[in-house]
Amino acid sequence: MFAYLFKRLLLMVPTLLGVLTVTFIVIQFVPGGPVEQVMAEARASQKGGDGGGSYKAGRDISKKQMEELKKLYGFDKPAHVRYFEMLSNFARFDLGRSFMQNKDVWTLIKDKLPVSISLGLWAFLISYLISIPMGITKAVREGSAFDNVTTLLVLVGFAIPGFVLGVLLIVLFAGGSFWDVLPLRGLTSDNWADLTWGGKIKDYFWHLAMPLTCLTIGSFATITLLTKNTFVEEIRKQYVLVARAKGLSQDRVLYKHIFRNALIPLVTGLPAAFIGAFFAGSVLIETLFSLDGLGLLGYEAVIRRDYPVVLGSLYVFTLLGLVVKLVADMLYVVVDPRVQFEAVSR
Q1: Which one of 131, 176, 230, 283 is CB 3.0 to 4.6 Å from 299, fit for a cystine?
Q2: How far, in Å, CA of 228 to CA of 139, rounded?
Q3: For the chain, where are the alpha helices, taking DSSP H only?
C-alpha cells in the first residue's frame, strides 16, 4: 500500500509538469497578449481624445510604453527563463500577481471560493444523495411504472441545458412574467448581517435554489442510471441467489452484500464528479445569477489574457484533482478489501 502510494505521489510531478508545460507553450502562440491589449486601449483613447493629428505622437509614446509594459509583465525575458521562473514559484506555491487586477492570484482564488464551494458542495451532495437511492429503487423495481417514469424524467432533465432552465426559472419565479418569489442575484440578501442564524440559513438556501436546480438537474441521469445498472448486474449474480436461499431478508441482501460490490463503479467516478462540481462549474450559470465564482474568474482570465491567473488556477485545480483521484483509489480498499495495491506497484 505504502509503496503504491509513494509511486502515485511521484507520478503527480510529471503530470503537473505536463499540464503546465503544454498550457505555457500554447500561451506563447496566442495572439493579443496583455501588453497588446493595454496598448490597443491606449491608442484608441488617444485617437478618440485628440483626433487623427495625434496618431504619430501616440505611436511614438506607445513604443516607450511597450518596453515598460513588457518589463512590468516580465515579457522582456526569454520564454524559457519565464517558464523556469514559473515552475520555481509554483514549487513554493507562489502563484504570482494578476496582470489586470493587480492582486495576488491566491487572494483572487480565495475570494471566489465561497461561491464555488456553495455551488459545488451542495450540487455534489444533492446529486449523489438523490440519485443513489433512486437508482437502487429502480434496480429493485426494474420494469415497473416507477422505473419507466423516473427514467423518462431524468433523461428529460439531462437533455435540458442548464442555462436554458435558468432563464426559464427566472421568467417563472424571479420577477419575470409570472411570480417574484426567488432572489435573482448573489448568495445573500443585503440585510444578511441583520438576520438571525435561522434567517441567514434560510436566506442562503433561498438564493441557491435556482442555481443549484440548474446545476444538478442534468447530473441525475448519469448517476441514477449507473447506480441502477450496477445494482441490476449484482442482483443477478450467484452469491445473491445463495444469500436469498439462506433466508436473508431483502434489505440485508441489498445493503450488506450487494451495496459494497455495486459501490465500486460509483467510487470510480467520484473524483471527476467532485472536481467537476467544484471547479468546472458553469460560467453561464454564474453569469446568469450574478455569482462571482472560480468559473467566471477563469473565463475572464482567458479572455483578458491574464496569464498568471490562468496558469495559477490551472495549477491548483490540477493538483487538487490528482489528490482527489489518489483518495478515490484508497477508497477502493475501504469498499472492497480484496483490492491489493501491492500487486499493482510491483
Answers
A1: 283
A2: 5
A3: 2-28, 34-50, 55-73, 79-91, 105-140, 145-159, 162-173, 197-216, 220-235, 238-245, 250-252, 259-268, 270-275, 283-288, 294-303, 307-335, 341-345
Q: Write phi, then psi, for 279 (nearest 5 degrees).
A: -120, -25
Q: How confident is the model at residue 9, as a pLDDT?
A: 82
Number of other residues whose CB lies within 10 A of the CB of residue 128? 19
The DSSP secondary structure of 72-131, one letter per residue, reads HHTTTS-HHHHHHHHHHHHHTT---B-TTT-SBHHHHHHHHHHHHHHHHHHHHHHHHHHH
Largest CA distance in the chain: 96
Q: Scanning the structure block, which residue is given the C-alpha cell 478618440?
A: 48
Reported as a single tens digit per residue, the pLDDT across 146-176 is 999 999 999 998 898 888 888 888 888 887 6
Residue of 64 and 80 predicted with greater confidence: 80
If one counts every other C-beta atom within 10 angstroms of the C-beta of residue 344, the result is 12
* Contact by Cβ (8 Å): 179, 169: no
CA–CA separation, 251 and 19 (whole Å): 46
Q: Which amino acid is at 23?
A: T
Listed in sequence order, the residues at least 6 apart from 153 whose beta carbon sits closer than 8 Å to its beta carbon are none
CA 168 to chain CA centroid, Å, is 23
The angle formed by the CA atoms of residues 310, 315 and 321, to the nearest 5 degrees, is 125
Cα atoms in the 13 Å half-sphere on the side-chain side of 141: 13
Cα separation, 199 vs 175, in Å, equals: 22
Task: Please state, in angstroms and rounded to a whole number, the distance separating the CA atoms of residues 230 and 50.
Answer: 71
